[in-house]
Design a protein that fits this description.
Blueprint: H1 16-28, H2 35-47, H3 57-68
Helix pairs in contact: 2-3
Length: about 70
């Protein structure tokens, strides 16, 4: 059983830019986060509900961070 709870975040379509900006800020600051915080963020992000279905979201998130995080 995962320590992370699948969650859904209700937001208005006009607020999606806020989530994109927050996500970009997290990626830009990624290397400054403690390893436990990084692990928790990836774990929770992997189980968040999203309008797009992605196979193996954790692997996709980790690959993105490897390629783009500073």
């Amino acid at each position: 059983m995962s320590e992370f709870t699948p969650l859904s975040l209700d937001y208005r379509p006009q607020d999606e830019h806020v989530l994109r900006r927050l996500g970009c800020a997290v990626a830009a600051l990624w290397s400054s986060f403690p390893e436990d915080t990084q692990r928790r963020l990836v774990g929770q992000a992997a189980v968040m509900a999203d309008r797009e279905t992605v196979m193996r979201p954790r692997l996709a998130i980790e690959a993105f961070l490897r390629d783009h995080a500073r």
